[in-house]
Amino acid sequence: MPASDYDSACLPDILPLYYRRLFPFSQYYRWLNYGGVQKNYFQNREFSFTLKDDIYVRYQSFTTQNELEKEMQKMNPYKIDIGAIYSHRPNQHNTVKSGTFQALEKELVFDIDMTDYDDVRSCCSAAEICPKCWTLMTIAIRVLDRALRDDFGFQHLLWVYSGRRGVHCWVCDKAARKLSVAARSAVAEYLSLVKGGDETMKKVVLSDPIHPFIRESLVVVERYFPLYALQDQDILGRKESVDKHLHVRKQLQQDFQNEKKPENRWNLLKDQAKRKQATSKKGQHFEKEIMLQYCYPRLDVNVSKGVNHLLKSPFSVHPKTGRISVPIDLKELETFDPFAVPTISMICEELDRPRTVEEEDKSEETIDKENEKDAAESRKIRDYKRTSLAKYVKCFDQFLDVMARSWKGELLKKSDLQKDF
Questions:
Q1: For residue 295, which of 189, 214, 239 has the smallest C-alpha distance?
Q2: Could you read off the pLDDT of 383-395 as tens digits, one per residue?
Q3: Contacts from 95-98 at CB under 8 Å and sequence distance 24+?
Q4: What are phi and psi of 168, to 5 degrees?
Q5: DSSP at 163
Q6: What are the φ and ψ backbone dihedral angles of 310, each rounded to 5 degrees?
Q7: Which of 24, 59, 81, 295 is deepest in the core (most CB within 10 A)?
């Protein structure tokens, strides 16, 4: 994934600048504090830092936003992971009686990684991605976002680009954060369709009647399949793809000799499937299974099942590409471009650009209205607003504003209950 302006050797020099002037600490704290509805919620959260030379520091925890800021500015982590809310402060876990330090809550999370699709993409492999296969991530977000909202009733979903080759979803509803390991496993299994490893040819098997969830997912998949699979991956034009996945009959392979257009070949295949269905109970959903095998989201279910599983934090930097792990605005999902996501080098350079006269005037005006402490905070806000990071922080802010309405309701309920005593 070319990030031409980025060289990982410069990280020790630019990470301090990023954490000092650009990392959106106030929004970050606002998110993980969840309105202060539950006591010690932020304080009992585990953070884990990966430092230079792959030094890995687990069970970090912080009392306040200020403490988190100071520690991150001191350690300048190459990567930040977020863990669970524990029964005790994670940084004191060694002092707690054995067996009592327990992971209690965490957002329900999903991790979709492009490497899990290597058997159904010919454009790239391993850590590489390109605009052709990025469509798979768009499909994954569309399918899972619909299911989590409509089938499970969750509302607060934060979708984040990993910075390299995948996407993460943080389901932040109170009900999701309280799910047990068994319940998380049940949700992950419900959403999993593609089963089997490299040696399994047929990874999707549908039975009658098709579950409503699969029907809804097919509506999404059918929208993208012609362009993604038939055109961009040319699955009916490449012999190895036809042989490996489609188990088509000799007759069909002969028909393919006379028909080179991908869409027409697909129609021939569907016609053959219909004829087969008329004479046998087997293969009832042949073409649907192919579409799902090529396009359906592939989840790393282990990430979703564990309450104590760590996941890379939003606004962490990806050390290999230098790209920031940014929230994805679903209103602009079709045009989201992972290659346009800013690198740390890029936003640090944007910070060094001379300010315009207008920016200077605004800056002076604001400082006059603030005391020293607020001035430092708002200077940081003005800093990121001068960079390409601004629109992603704005997207995060909008997500938090919606979630804050639910906290208000809970805080009012809480104060009413206290008045009753």
A1: 214
A2: 999 999 999 999 9
A3: none
A4: -120, 150
A5: S
A6: -85, 145
A7: 295
